[in-house]
Amino acid sequence: MSENPNPEPIVLQDMMDLAARADTLHWQPFRDGVELHQIYGTMGQPGPSACLLRFQPGAKVPRHRHTGYEHIIVLEGGQTDDRGHYTAGTALISPPGTDHAIVSEEGCIVLAIYQSPVAFD
Fold first, then answer.
1. What is the DSSP letter of 69?
2. Which tens digits make up the pLDDT trace of 61-120?
3. pTM score, two decimals?
4. Residues 67 and 117: beta-carbon distance below 8 Å
5. What is the pLDDT of residue 6?
6. Which domains are delineated in the chain?
7. Which residues does residue 74 pair with via DSSP β-bridges, in sequence order?
């Protein structure tokens, strides 16, 4: 695949107010109780990608290892992993080689930016 010679930036406005318009986005099933709205790239495929993840209350993502940097910005609600609980406005950066499992007891929406795909156990 060739690079676009004149790429346009992706502009995501009013990210912290996303909850008010979340139902206007195209969501796809990702895991039980977790939906995905792809922004660029393809989740699980080689190369970088970004998406929004919407967790229903009690939804989980199983343990996975980061093969590149993962940036998570919690936009609404909260999620918990092995290291703590993260609420709206929190940025969590997981370096390559780290792993965790995630649960969102109250439900949440996060912006997830991946340098490369994660590896599920």
1. -
2. 999 999 999 999 999 999 999 999 999 999 999 999 999 999 999 999 999 999 998 998
3. 0.90
4. yes
5. 74
6. 31-120 (2.60.120.10)
7. 110
Dump the DSSP string for 5-68: SSPPPP---SGGGGGGGGGGS--EEEETTEEEEEEES-TTSSS-EEEEEEEPTTEEEEEEEESS
How many other C-beta atoms are found inside a 10 Å radius of the C-beta of residue 97? 9
Gap between the Cα atoms of 57 and 17, Å rounded: 19
The rounded distance, in Å, linking the Cα atoms of 119 and 121 is: 7
Three-class DSSP category at 106? coil
List the one residue out of 71, 114, 62 whose CA is nearest residue 92. 71
What's the CA gap between 37 and 81, in Å, rounded? 22
- Tokens for 46, please give them: 């080689």
